[in-house]
Design goal:
By secondary structure, the protein is α+β, with helices and mostly antiparallel strands. The chain has one domain (about 25-145). Helix content is about 15%, strand content about 50%. The chain contains one helix and ten strands; from the N terminus they run H-E-E-E-E-E-E-E-E-E-E. The strands form two sheets. The protein has an eight-stranded antiparallel barrel with strand order 1-2-3-10-6-7-8-5. A two-stranded antiparallel sheet has the order 4-9. A hairpin with a 2-residue loop joins strand 2 and strand 3.
Length: about 140
């Protein structure tokens, strides 16, 4: 019984390794850059806009509900990779955290979020020591008309 269990676990690890490597090489469908924000005392930055680059075209994006958990930052930016974007219309929506609050290798904050259409964004703040925080009801992203 124990040998069978060890054999099954070994098989799962060996079979899963190529899948994990394949996931690392998946190209994003689009990129997202957030560069503008406004300061709110005690809250940090709350972005108002950004840009989405999809299939060689750049779209202006409005952003509500994303803040940087750091006071005293004069400027913060964030950029991300967008996955699962099959159509530009599926980008709009309320994104909720899949994972948030992690730290990247350079000290920036990381947030992974997805919307109701299956679009996933891996967002990285580029300011050192900055932690990205999603509002409790999520982050609303919308292509501006």
């Amino acid at each position: 019984m124990q040998r069978t269990l060890i054999g099954i676990l070994t098989l799962l690890v060996v079979a899963g390794a190529p899948l994990a490597r394949a996931a690392d090489t998946v190209q994003p469908d689009a990129t997202l850059d957030l560069k503008e924000g406004s300061v709110a005392a005690g809250i940090g930055f709350s972005w108002g806009s950004g840009t989405l680059t999809y299939k060689g075209k750049t779209y202006p994006v409005s952003v509500e509900g994303l803040s940087v958990g750091s006071v005293g930052i004069s400027e913060a930016t964030a950029s991300g990779k967008v996955f699962g974007l099959k159509d530009i219309k599926s980008f709009d929506g309320v994104y909720t955290a899949v994972a948030a609050g992690g730290a990247a290798a350079g000290g920036g904050g990381v947030a992974v979020m997805s919307n109701q259409n299956g679009v996933r964004i891996e967002l990285l703040s580029t300011a050192q020591g900055v932690k990205l925080t999603l509002a409790t009801e999520g982050v609303k992203l919308k292509i501006k008309q």
